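User: My instructor asked us to take a sequence, write out its structure as tokens, and then describe one feature of it. I'm not sure where to start. Here is the sequence I was given:
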Amino acid sequence: AGGVIGDLVFDGEIPGELTRLAALRHVAPGAVVCDTGTAAMRGAIEDEEARRRYDQGSPLMLVNVGNAHTLVFVLVEQRVKAIYEHHTHSLSPVDLIKDMNRVLSAEITGEEIFARGGHGAAHRQGWRGADPRETFVSVTGPRRSLLHNQGFHYATPGGDQMMVGAIGLLCAIQ
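Assistant: Let's start with the prediction itself. The structure tokens for your sequence are:
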């Protein structure tokens, strides 16, 4: 919708194409629901350094390297400008960094990622990318070691990387 991460958290009607979230709602009627990747991205913003840059509207790349899926959001001026999702087991560190750079430059396409077995990539219409020298990259997730020694920041909201999803969900429903 408007490019706000909170738009991916549902306390009311769930769009029909979000079948997994609808299944959650069926199990827990009336519950606030969101995808675990969304919760992780929202929680990563609560890391002290990421929060400072987010509040300034600076370009921010959030990377959640999960056990099954890797999710990348690029936010500029507190709005999601690009998103990417792929299977973690299919990515080498070199592949992931290459894809991250192409997400940041708005060059990657959903079709390209689908063809490689991933879920896709998209960027907001008219967005031309962000300068990598000005973009803060914050990494989280149980497989974050895939990006070890690359100079990226490891998000630790509340002082603990393992709390990123829980903190994200709590912040999203406030």
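For the description part of your assignment, you could build on this observation: The chain has six helices and six strands. Try explaining in your own words what that tells you about the chain.
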